[in-house]
Amino acid sequence: MNLTFSLQSVVRIFVGAIFILSSIGKFIDSSDAQYLVELLSMNIYWLIEYKGIIVLSITILELALGILLLLNRYTFWSYLASAALILSLSSVLLFFKFQGTQVAACGCFGAFDLLSGPNATLAKNGVLMILIIYGIYANTKHAKTNSAN
């Protein structure tokens, strides 16, 4: 076992644990996340009817991705779906930031949200994206090495 493999495992477990922690926090308290969808519905009106379903879907997706990453199953696709999820949630926050709308909390971690301002959340998402990109790179490199053998 070399350093690259162990770093890859640590990143995979860390990202999976973050997604599971986030989903459990949203299962406990999703009011801030629903409020964010309500703010978004000021521009996209039909979202208000589905705010509960949207937040629940995101929460279940986060839980599933976290479990898949922890179990080391479908890691490439899990990383890609994680990247798409982080980019979509970050784009909503950037939309509000550029629009000038003050968002007190995004509800990204639900009840466990410590640093919940938009700048802190974008910073956390940036770190997660770097880890996810590394995971995708390491996973592809590891798969190429295994297919060559």
Annotation keywords:
149 residues, mainly alpha
The helix content is over 70%
Could you give the count of β-strands? 0
- Count of the domains: 1
What structural class do helix, strand and pairing data support? mainly alpha
Let me know the average pLDDT. Answer: 85
- Main β-sheet: number of strands, strand sense, barrel status? none
Total helical segments: 5
Instruction: Tell me the strand percentage band.
Output: under 5%
Spans of 5+ residues with little confidence (pLDDT < 50)?
A: none
If you compute it from the alpha carbons, what radius of gyration comes out, rounded to the nearest whole angstrom?
16 Å
The rough form would be described as elongated
* End-to-end gap: 16 Å
Order of helices and strands: HHHHH
Strand and helix map with partners:
Blueprint: H1 3-28, H2 31-40, H3 51-70, H4 75-99, H5 118-148
Helix pairs in contact: 1-3, 1-5, 2-3, 3-4, 4-5
If you had to describe this structure to a student in words, what would you say it looks like?
With 149 residues, the chain is mainly α. The chain has one domain (3-148). It has helices spanning 3-28, 31-40, 51-70, 75-99, 118-148. The protein is elongated and about 55 Å long. The two termini are 16 Å apart. The mean pLDDT is 85.
